[in-house]
Structures are given as structure tokens and as C-alpha cells.
Amino acid sequence: MKNLTFSEFIPTYLHYLREKRPNNDGRNETILTQHLIPHFGALRLSAIKLQDGLVYLQNRRAARIGPEDKKRTVADGTIERECATLMAVLNLAVDMDWLDKNRLKRLPVPEYKKRERVAEGWELIKLREAASPIVWNLVMAALQTGLRENKLIEIHEEWLMQRGDGWWMAPSPGQTRIKGVPLNGLACDTLQGDMPRIGGRFFGQWKDGNSFKHSWIRTDLPPEN
User: Fold this and answer.
1) DSSP, residue by residue, 92-104
2) What is the rounded CA–CA span in Å between residue 93 and residue 163?
């Protein structure tokens, strides 16, 4: 068994991820590049211990992010997603016999607490003023369907189907718990509008200043999780 480093195994993981989820939103790759590789990259897979994971959690909880005048701590939901990506890499290494076992399986990953609060009208107005047209379309689609941002980014025009009771959106490939999402008139108008599509997807992958995250920051509203 070749003793690969964490960084050396990442191309194999990304290849697997692309085959498993061809329309993935790219977040895992961003997490790897910006956070996991800088911390774990030089370590041999077999040398990654629980203590290394604990140090990573400590560093992320201590980190301050955002503009200088709006510094904030990293949300638990963000750290949870990073740890999920880390576990996916290590578990795949085990499955492919590059690693004997995942020594971080007992890592005390923070649990994301789902927010039940509905956005106030004035918050939506501020978001509308700060967002680009395509980000606002995504916001409207989220309000009508209840889907999270990463799921909306994956939506492809082929997933829409018209039934006797109206338009529905089929679940993304590999999703079995949800049989479909009904679309009302506003949701259909949002998805089938005049915005350009990339490869049939209603919402292309975006980052930097055109992302939902940066649009929210520009509103001066409390940090979204």
C-alpha cells in the first residue's frame, strides 16, 4: 500500500466525486483548496490522527472571516460541511485500500442548527437591492421551493416535467427521499425566464462578488448560516 499524502489523494477523490455527482456545485473542491489541503495536505493519509482533526476544529472556530469592518466567526454549518468533505476523502481512501481506517471518525463535528425563521419583508428588500439579477432569481426560487442554495445551483432544465396537475421538478440524481417538488407559477417564471443558462442549468456556478454569500454581506444583515 503506497503511503500517499492527503494532497496526493485529492485528484482521485475529485475524479470519484465528478463521476458520482456530475453536476456538483463545486463547494467540496473549494473547501479542499482553501481549508483542508492547507491543514492536512502534507500529512500522509496513515499519519492523520484524531488530534490533527481537533486542531483543525480549534483553528476554524478561532478564525475571523469577512471584511475588516464586519469580521465574524465561522458558522457551525460551514465547519460541519468542511468536516463532511474531510470524512468523504478519508472514507474513500479506506474503501480504495489507500488507508487502513479513518482515524477521525470520532471527531466531534459541530451540528448545524437549522433556522426556522422566515425572512422579513424588509430583509428581502435589502437583499434585492444588493443582489445581481441571477442571485435574486435564485432567492425567489428558494422561497417558492424551499430548496437550499447548493440544490438550486444543480437544477437542470431536463429536471422539469409537466404533469396533469402542473409543473414539477424531479429530484437530483441519486436522491430518493424526495420524489419531486411542485412548482407554482412564480417558480416557473423564475426558472424559465430570460436569464442565460450554462449547459442547461438554470443557475451556473458563481463565486466571489456575484455569490449569494457576498450579496448577503452587502446588505449588512446578520450573518446567514
Assistant:
1) HHHHTTS-S--TT
2) 43
Query: 216 Cβ partners below 8 Å, 6+ apart?
Result: 127, 130, 223, 224
Task: Give the separation between CA 186 and CA 195, rounded to whole angstroms.
Answer: 15
Distance CA 221, CA 14 (A): 35
Predicted TM-score of the model (pTM):
0.61
- Dig out the grid coordinates for 48 from the structure: 492523520
Listed residue (193, 191, 195, 172) closest to 183, CA to CA: 191
- Please give the Cα distance from 224 to 15 (Å, whole number): 31
Query: Is residue 25 within 8 Å of residue 205, measured between CB atoms?
Result: yes
> What number of CA atoms fall less than 13 Å from residue 218's CA on the CB side?
18
pLDDT interval class at 92 (50, 70, 90):
very high
At position 173, the amino acid (one-letter code) is P
118-159: pLDDT as tens digits: 778 888 888 888 877 878 888 888 888 888 777 787 788 888
Distance of CA 71 to the CA centre of its chain: 21
Selection from 41, 63, 62, 66 nearest residue 52 by Cα: 41
| Cβ 190 vs Cβ 140: under 8 Å | yes
The widest CA-to-CA distance across the chain, in whole angstroms, is 58
Count of other CB atoms within 10 angstroms of residue 136: 18
Measured at the CA of 46, the angle between CA 107 and CA 96, to 5 degrees, comes to 95
